[in-house]
Amino acid sequence: MPATDHPDYKNEVKRLNYTVEYLKNHIENLQGKKGKIDKDVNYGTKHYNEENTEQFNELMINQSVQETLSEKLKNLKKGLSKPYFARVDFAEDKSNVLQMLYIGKISLIREKDQKPIIIDWRAPIATLYYDGRIGDANFDCPEGNIKGKIKLKRQYIIKEAKLLEIYDIDVTANDEFLQAALGSNKDNRLKDIVSTIQSEQNKVIRADMWRPLVVQGAAGGGKTTIALHRIAYLLYNEKSMKPENFMIIAPNRFFLSYISEVLPDLGVENVVQTTYEDFAMKIIGKRIKVKNPYDKLCLIIKNKDKSLINISKFKSSLKYKNLIDEYISFIESEFIPKEDFKVENFVLVKYDDINSLFIKDYKDMPMMKRVNEIKKTLRNELDRKEEPIIESLEEFYESKLNDVRKMEDSPERRKKVIKITFERDFRIQKVKKKSKTAVDDYVSKICALLPIEYYEDFLKKNKNKARKVKAETLKNVQEGTFEIEDLAPLMYLKYMVYGNDKKFKIRHVVIDEAQDLSPFQLFVIKKIIRGDSFTILGDLCQGIYSYRGINDWNGVSDEVFGEDNYSFLTLKQSYRTTIEIMDAANKVIGFLKDPKLPQSKPVIRHGEPVHVIKKSNIDDVVKDISEKILKLESEGFKSAAIICKDMNECKRIKAKFKKCGNDIRIINGSENDYTGGLSIIPSYLVKGLEFDAVFIADASSKKYSTDPLDVKLLYISMTRPLHRLNIYYVGEKAEML
Description:
There is one protein chain. The protein is of the alpha/beta class. It is 47% helix and 17% strand. The two termini are 40 Å apart.
């Protein structure tokens, strides 16, 4: 309701003004402290003396404080416009004190008595707002489970430090506040949702970081946004973690641009954001030519090529990994040179012992890291045995000299003494000289290939196993091209031989649209980060790469993480679109009658009916879309997409619009920036995106058959709009409609 109509309006305005004023003073004080630190850092940098350890330590400390203050000030300044968005009144059991908790995106503590003015939404007590209802409630914190009663839950709309609306609520779902948020128009970026996080979303955000989390999320359930909020939450509560310890893997760079503002809005910078392909290139250590996966998808969409599907499916499976494991065992068996480590004729360590260290003792380490350990062992043995070797030589030659000394003095005796002495000194010098390089000389005989060279060798060997897969892949590799399915084996080989770079810091991985990753891809990431700290989010209903991706969360999770060694949560509610649109989309995905494909439950928000429009040709479709776009613009809508099945259709539609004087850009997935507005985009690129309005250019039976892939592509396209959906068809409409 309008804030002025609320009976508690005056008190709330007073509280808001107090908070803003305190925040301003706090910012001013921090700016003063930062100014002093800036001067100290500037002075320390200009007068830096690398030999002065105390000065160096002081500079490092000041630079760290400077960075912390800068980050804190930036976040506090953001809070000036909207310091908080909710209030919870909570009384602990056996306590007469009523805590009035104002919840926002920042934390603000009053200095004089350490009382909270604003509670950070990520704090344990803030879960009362997200999960609690009026009456009995509890929350977990480091001190244990705190029980009590919620007396009041209140939400605010505040802009430019002005209180505009107040809502007294019980639950956060299906209330006016949420409706207002969902009903707003979409611009060019995803936004944070801290004020409207629902209970099922909150469970995902606050789940245990160190146990793999798999989330099946409905289209429009907020998977991507929740994943980003989870990172912000984990960083706040896991003090040992830094932003650079987190990595987000997204479907493409265009998608990364789309989500780029959420983490900074939540006060989080420097999280690694990448695509699987870019991550693979970094691990492999070389940029290689990878075929566009969308080209293969388009071929499969068009031809339903079973051979193509089967090859991709096998290369994406853990069966293929097992073949590579056999090859890795072969590499291991040939890795150590089959010779003893010796100096002169003295054997310091036998080959069998060195190989046993490599194969058994250090088996859990990448091969080249094992070599480093063996190098240490050889060096230790050499250091331990060099002196005894020299002593044994001296004793040996001393014995020979003693035998000669027993002879009568003669030129021959003197000659023998000189010869033995020379031979002794020569061999001792040779041992000393050889000792300096013996370890490096031995290790230099260990030759490791590049991952691509190993992969090519693997494909050439054991041709009787998966012959067709290997032959097809070898042909591509020898031509210098790779498929997306080849990246996992290449990364696996690189890691198993070389391990990670010392600078590798990733400890938690968030994967969005994870249904399109293969079991092998997930396994390799797990291997590389050397842990189980994962947040895996996806929707099987949108699994358009099911021939190489995931069709069953439990099966894959059991394979990769182990049975019962992961948590599984669902986001059933869809917040993106209207009941009318979601009902129509559910009808389409329901056509497959697959129990593993759960239908979304729309939040209670009604809108216009879905318009399924028959046209006699594409020119008429383009004309109708043009007219409707003008109407949408006049109504204040900010974003719209014309979704075509594939890129060829996108190009044809673009040409038709250009002919009419509208040059609309096509999204091809390689863009580094998303500017919003009106776009033409193929169906396989729209996952995760949302628009005010969507126009499906041609949903005829000719375009969309009853094949599961076609059904999913149509479903994905239909679940993108927030407000309006227009579906066109020429000829007969798709059977699912």
